[in-house]
Every structure is written in structure tokens, then in C-alpha cells.
Design goal:
This is Lysine N-acyltransferase MbtK. InterPro entries: Acyl_CoA_acyltransferase (IPR016181), Acyltransferase_MbtK/IucB-like (IPR019432), GNAT_dom (IPR000182). It holds the Pfam family Acetyltransf_8. One of its GO terms (molecular function) is N-acyltransferase activity. The chain is built from six helices and eight strands, in the order E-E-H-H-H-E-E-E-H-E-H-E-E-H. The chain is of the alpha+beta class. The protein has an eight-stranded mixed β-sheet. Strand 5, helix 4 and strand 6 form a beta-alpha-beta unit. Helix 4 crosses helix 5. It is globular, with a radius of gyration of 16 Å.
Length: about 200
């Protein structure tokens, strides 16, 4: 999960890009964490200095990679792609060594409610499946977040069970490679910038 990903989405008529977060992004991500549509689910609406410490720790965590999501070059979302092994979610089901997970938020309000969540999620999951040993991507959205649960389902995730995590009750969801590829095989091809997962 080290390289950027980019594709042109024919339905959106826009380019979707994921690039790795750097510490220079801290101000923008902190602003997003304080948005009313974000903080009830992320619980990171903390003072900037506290968030700087949080982001430094997250960037140093080798089991995950943080991404900024862009649409036509405009930064608008934040993503955490992680390996399940070594994460708290690992203990909630019988995981395989190459299972991956994903967290996301749409930060910029102008992009809310306009159909961006699904194509972005689809491309992030496609990006994660470029690791050929990965057969499953998991998600555990806050069980109250019905809008995101709906988007995960449309992408190909199936609800498994509610799980208790340190900061929330999540809904464990699985997206199996076979189901994902079957669902999206007729979608226009997307062209990664480069990848050596």
C-alpha cells in the first residue's frame, strides 16, 4: 500500500486520485475532523497539538497507510488502508494474513451528498486488491452511520455482525475479492499511476 493510485471515472467525468498523506496535511485533516458530519464517528475533534501527535503516530504505524483522496486534483477525503493483522479488528473474526481494512471520511462539505462516496470507495478497494494475496477487505463503520453502511453495501461489502471496538460499536463488513470483481467487472477500466503492493 505504498504507491499512489489514479483513475478517470467516466460516470463522474472526473479523475480520482489517492496519494499518501504527509505531515504537511495535518491542518487540513484536523479541520475535517472537526466538521459536524465527521466528528461523531471519528472522535478526533481534539486541539491541533493533540491531533499532530495522533497523526505522527499514525504515519509511523507500519500496519497502515494513510491517503488523501482527490477529485480532479482537489483534496476532499481522508483514507486509512490497513492490514487486519496487528489491528484491533483482528480479534473480532477469524482473519487471514493478507486481509486488509479501510476507514474513510469525506472532508469537504461541497462533495457531500453528490455521489462521490461509492466511486471513491470502489477505487480504494480496487487499489487494495492489487495486493494479489488479499482475498478480503473489511470495514467496521460506526453502527449508527447508516449512510456509510449503505455505501459499503453498494460497493460489495456484506454485513457480518456488530463488534465492540475501543471507541465505538462497529458493524463488521466483508468485501470478498470474487464478489467485488463480479460486481464491477463491467465498470470502465481505471489506470493506476503505479503500484507494487
Amino acid at each position: 500500500m505504498d504507491n499512489d493510485y489514479e483513475c478517470y471515472d467516466k460516470k463522474l467525468n472526473q479523475t480520482i486520485t489517492f496519494r499518501k498523506v504527509t505531515f504537511d496535511d495535518v491542518g487540513r485533516i484536523h479541520k475535517w475532523m472537526n466538521e459536524d458530519h465527521v466528528h461523531p464517528y471519528w472522535n478526533l475533534n481534539v486541539p491541533l497539538e493533540s491531533f499532530k501527535a495522533h497523526l505522527k503516530k499514525a504515519l509511523a504505524d507500519s500496519h497502515q497507510t494513510l491517503y488523501m483522496g482527490l477529485v480532479d486534483g482537489q483534496m476532499m477525503s481522508y483514507w486509512e488502508a490497513y492490514w487486519v493483522r496487528g489491528d484491533v479488528v483482528e480479534k473480532t473474526y477469524s482473519s487471514s494474513p493478507y486481509d486488509q481494512g479501510v476507514h474513510l471520511l469525506i472532508g469537504e462539505r461541497v462533495f457531500l451528498g453528490k455521489g462521490y462516496s461509492l466511486p471513491l470507495l470502489r477505487e480504494m478497494v480496487r487499489f487494495q486488491f492489487q495486493s494479489l494475496k488479499t482475498k478480503k477487505v473489511v470495514a467496521e463503520p460506526d453502527i449508527r452511520n447508516e449512510k456509510m453502511i449503505h455505501v459499503f453495501k453498494k460497493c460489495g461489502f456484506k454485513p457480518v455482525k456488530p463488534i465492540q471496538l475501543p471507541d465505538k460499536t462497529g458493524l463488521l463488513m466483508f468485501c470478498e475479492r470474487e464478489e467485488f470483481e463480479k460486481r464491477w467487472s463491467n465498470e470502465p477500466l481505471c489506470y493506476p499511476v503505479q503500484s507494487n503492493l
